């Protein structure tokens, strides 16, 4: 069993609570919801992602004999729990927003309805899966808006926080609108198109830069991209112009050149002039090296003739907002509403639905969070995706998820599409939900 599938990939307190629930006889139906409390300071929206991996986790959840043996020897839990875990499976229902859905603070993007020990146990891994891909998809979506149709490639595997993070970041970026990834495994696992250029070390291996370009072109003639800033960027561009006729005689076409350092704006202008003067108007210019959505916006706003961007560290680490303030909280137990009332972390109780209204301009006009089942105008965003531990429908393709994201980004109000800092989107709390919170407070009154 892979480490990412291990039943022990959880927090110890989940096992401790499970043991206590069973001992107390608290195995009634519980409802938990996953949501984000607030946005990072300069962000105006989020994109839901990670549902496919979350459902796979729930559907395949079980405990191996080796894990049971280790638990018994560890002393962390007693035999009363390990005996119950032998046939442990997830048998609950799941409602969720489709992957790629644009959403906002306090809106639940996933709801789990299951026997309390099950619903409690799955918290850690669900947060782990949903949080990370939602974070990266949201960061990537900001870059998609900033790039205004230019090519975007994920270069971030080498700076990602581990192998799973690098792989899932490539998936999240692609569903948000990136064109592909340098991560080869992402193509094999998810169908994310793989892109590759060359490294400065390849150029260093040859005594002559032109020879390095030619040898790489002979070996990799398809979708040829040459890295031209190892020594002198403008000189590198002139060498590409001089080499192009010889490569054409071999049937090789140069697709693009890549800039990875220096003043990318100024260099892209001079390189474009050199390429155009040399008859290489069709050769595209790609840029990489420390880019994020702010820098992409600045370059394009200043007229840089860059056709595509490779983004690494700032994408896979979400460098300006490394984590979301998210939570998975109990909202109902044994048919009664429950909510947290802690200062700054109070929750809205009960099973909820998010209703979205679209304005006459085709843009999202507002969201309303209300009690599930209350008739309201608009489109309900949460859908049932799992019943009694099994998926209701086959998973959508990544292309279908990309279309959902693209539609959501297109419908954002213009200030959010422009990534205007401080841009606010209205989310209404329905009176029925306020009333349910008051009822929950009467049911559980610590004073």
In short:
The chain has 17 helices and 19 strands. By secondary structure, the chain is α/β, with parallel strands linked by helices.
Please give a structural write-up.
This is Nicotinate phosphoribosyltransferase. It catalyses: 5-phospho-alpha-D-ribose 1-diphosphate + nicotinate + ATP + H2O = nicotinate beta-D-ribonucleotide + ADP + phosphate + diphosphate. Its EC number is 6.3.4.21. The longest helix is centred in the N-terminal third of the chain and has 25 residues, at 123-147. The strands form 4 sheets. Strands 13-12-1-5-3-17-18 form a 7-stranded antiparallel β-sheet. Strands 7-6-11-10-9-8 form a 6-stranded parallel β-sheet. Strands 16-14-15-19 form a 4-stranded mixed β-sheet. The protein folds into 2 domains: 3-136 and 322-443, nicotinate phosphoribosyltransferase (Alpha-Beta Barrel); 148-316, TIM Barrel (Alpha-Beta Barrel). Strand 10, helix 13 and strand 11 form a beta-alpha-beta unit. The chain starts with 11 loop residues before the first helix and ends with a helix. The protein is elongated, with a radius of gyration of 26 Å. It is of the alpha/beta class and 447 residues long. Helix 11 (233-249) runs parallel beside helix 12 (264-277). The protein contains 17 helices and 19 strands. It has helices spanning 12-24, 51-60, 65-74, 79-85, 116-121, 123-147, 163-176, 184-190, 200-204, 209-219, 233-249, 264-277, 293-301, 313-316, 398-410, 414-417, 431-443, and strands at residues 29-38, 46-47, 93-96, 102-103, 110-115, 151-154, 180-181, 224-227, 254-259, 284-288, 308-311, 325-333, 336-337, 352-358, 364-371, 379-380, 383-387, 390-391, 427-429. The model has no long low-confidence stretch (mean pLDDT 96).
């Amino acid at each position: 069993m892979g480490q990412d599938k291990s039943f022990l990939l959880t927090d110890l307190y989940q096992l401790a609570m499970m043991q206590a629930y069973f001992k107390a006889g608290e195995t009634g139906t519980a409802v938990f919801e996953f949501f984000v409390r607030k946005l990072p300071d300069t962000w105006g929206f989020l994109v839901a992602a990670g549902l496919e991996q979350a459902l796979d986790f729930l559907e395949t959840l079980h405990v191996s004999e080796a894990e049971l043996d280790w638990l018994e020897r560890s002393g962390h839990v007693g035999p009363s729990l390990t005996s119950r875990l032998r046939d442990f499976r997830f048998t609950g229902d799941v409602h969720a927003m489709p992957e790629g859905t644009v959403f906002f603070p306090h809106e639940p993007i996933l709801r789990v309805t299951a026997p309390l020990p099950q619903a409690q146990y799955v918290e850690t891994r669900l947060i782990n899966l949903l949080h990370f891909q939602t974070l990266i998809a949201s960061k990537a979506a900001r870059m998609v808006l900033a790039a205004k149709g230019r090519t975007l490639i994920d270069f971030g595997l080498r700076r990602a926080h581990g192998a799973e993070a690098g792989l899932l970041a490539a998936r999240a970026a692609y569903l948000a609108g990136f064109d592909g990834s340098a991560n080869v495994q992402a193509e094999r696992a998810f169908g994310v198109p793989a892109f590759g250029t060359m490294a400065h070390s390849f150029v260093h291996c040859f005594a002559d830069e032109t020879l390095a370009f030619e040898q790489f072109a002979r070996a990799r003639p398809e979708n040829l991209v040459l890295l031209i800033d190892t020594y002198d960027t403008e000189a590198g561009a002139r060498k590409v112009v001089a080499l192009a006729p010889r490569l054409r005689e071999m049937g090789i076409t140069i697709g693009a050149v890549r800039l990875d350092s220096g003043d990318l704006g100024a260099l892209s202008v001079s390189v474009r002039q050199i390429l155009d003067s040399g008859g290489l108007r069709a050769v595209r210019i790609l840029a990489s090296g420390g880019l994020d959505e702010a820098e992409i916006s600045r370059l394009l706003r200043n007229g840089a003739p860059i056709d595509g961007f490779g983004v690494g560290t700032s994408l896979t680490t979400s460098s300006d907002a490394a984590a979301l303030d998210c939570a998975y909280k109990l909202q109902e137990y044994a048919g009664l509403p429950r909510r947290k009332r802690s200062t700054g972390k109070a929750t809205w109780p009960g099973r909820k639905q998010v209703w979205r209204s679209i304005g006459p301009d085709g843009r999202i006009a507002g969201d309303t969070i209300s009690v599930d089942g209350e008739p309201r105008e608009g489109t309900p965003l949460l859908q049932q995706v799992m019943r009694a531990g099994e998926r209701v429908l086959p998973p959508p393709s990544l292309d279908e998820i990309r279309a959902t994201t693209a539609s959501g980004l297109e419908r954002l109000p213009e200030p959010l599409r422009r990534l205007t800092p401080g841009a606010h989107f209205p989310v209404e709390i329905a009176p029925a939900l306020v009333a349910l919170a008051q009822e929950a407070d009467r049911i559980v009154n610590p004073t």
